[in-house]
């Protein structure tokens, strides 16, 4: 416990346990299934640099949690991001686990 | 790869849940069109347009301000077109932020307003000349407000938005009351209670997103 982190907390999903990726997945979780948001709007909302967001999206994509699509709006190239079903499931399980840690009695 | 602060987990579950809520609220705000921009142009259009109509064509033919007879109805139409353009532009810009079912719903909802208003305006302009001026004004005003009320209620159903549904229901009720009481009063009721409700709903929607 030298770093002050509860050992139970470190057992949570390592992909979204990192703060930045948790923020990305949390934001994307408000989208309806099949809705995609543009990269710049997501970046603004999360107040991250484009490079930083790209790195985290790649890790989330590798885990199958998000889907990044490149398309065109007229002649403007657009990058769209959505949370996959797997990502949503992981997010739901993660938040449920956090709540269980806060209120262990409710789980039993 | 070196760990940055971003890669480190939060130690406290309560802190993590607060972070989740914060980011969710941020994105909802960033993908929702500003309710003030969507509703205030209509609120001001009704307040000013129907207000002018009341001042020129008051109850029992009372003239409070002697504006040229063509001014009030044309002013109202002009303000409504301006409001339509503002909300159309804001809505279209927002639709580009998302891609998928929500963006398609927004497009269909916007088109519903435009197409149904075009149908109504065409129909009324064919018949309005056959009616006395007072009744023709009431037909235009009452018809326009009835359609707006219905579309706001439909919007409430579509977006699962209680404020928007209440706005539509309120608009429909005051319109009905105004139509029954008669021309003149109808304009005053719609200007104050209808325009006021649009401004208030825009304000409430904005406060909820903050």
Topology:
The complex is a heterodimer of chains A (108) and B (210).
Chain A: H1 14-17, H2 19-28, E1 36-38, H3 39-46, H4 50-62, E2 66-73, E3 76-83, H5 85-102, H6 104-107
Antiparallel strand pairs in A: 1-3, 2-3
Chain B: H1 13-31, H2 35-56, H3 71-95, E1 98-99, H4 101-127, H5 133-159, H6 162-181, H7 185-209
Can you offer a commentary on this structure?
The complex is a heterodimer of chains A (108) and B (210). By secondary structure, chain A is an alpha+beta fold. Helices cover 53% and strands 18% of the residues of chain A. In chain A, β2 and β3 (76-83) form a beta hairpin. The two termini of chain A are 26 Å apart. Chain B is built from seven helices and one strand. Chain B has one domain (34-209). Chain B is elongated. By secondary structure, chain B is an all-alpha fold. The model of chain B has no long low-confidence stretch (mean pLDDT 91). Classes of the chains: A alpha+beta (108), B mainly alpha (210). Chains A and B meet through α2, β1, α3, β3 and α5 of A and α1, β1 and α4 of B. β1 (36-38) of chain A pairs antiparallel with β1 of chain B, so a sheet runs across the interface.
């Amino acid at each position: 416990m030298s770093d002050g982190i509860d050992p139970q907390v470190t057992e949570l999903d390592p992909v979204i346990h990192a703060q930045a990726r948790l923020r990305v997945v949390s934001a994307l979780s408000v989208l309806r299934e099949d809705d995609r948001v543009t990269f710049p709007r997501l970046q603004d909302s999360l107040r991250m640099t484009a490079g930083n967001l790209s790195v985290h999206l790649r890790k989330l994509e590798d885990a199958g949690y998000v889907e990044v699509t490149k398309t065109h709006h007229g002649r403007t190239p657009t990058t769209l991001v959505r949370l996959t079903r797997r990502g949503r499931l992981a997010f739901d399980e993660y938040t449920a686990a956090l709540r269980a840690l806060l209120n262990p009695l409710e789980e039993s | 790869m070196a760990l940055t602060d971003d890669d480190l987990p939060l130690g406290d579950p309560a802190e993590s849940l607060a972070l989740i809520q914060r980011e969710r609220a941020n994105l909802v705000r960033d993908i929702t069109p500003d309710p003030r921009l969507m509703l205030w142009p209509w609120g001001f259009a009704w307040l000013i347009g129907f207000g002018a109509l009341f001042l020129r064509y008051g109850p029992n033919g009372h003239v409070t301000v002697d504006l040229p007879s063509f001014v009030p109805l044309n002013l109202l139409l002009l303000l409504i077109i301006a409001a339509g353009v503002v909300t159309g532009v804001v809505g279209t810009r927002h639709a580009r932020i998302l891609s998928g079912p929500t963006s398609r719903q927004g497009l269909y909802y916007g088109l519903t307003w435009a197409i149904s208003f075009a149908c109504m305006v065409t129909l009324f302009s064919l018949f309005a000349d056959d009616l006395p001026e007072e009744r023709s004004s009431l037909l235009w005003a009452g018809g326009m407000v009835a359609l707006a009320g219905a579309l706001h209620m439909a919007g409430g159903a579509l977006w699962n938005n209680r404020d928007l549904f209440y706005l539509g229901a309120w608009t429909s009720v005051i319109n009905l009351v105004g139509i029954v009481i008669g021309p003149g009063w109808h304009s005053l009721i719609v200007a104050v209670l209808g325009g006021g409700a649009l401004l208030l709903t825009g304000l409430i929607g904005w406060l909820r997103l903050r």
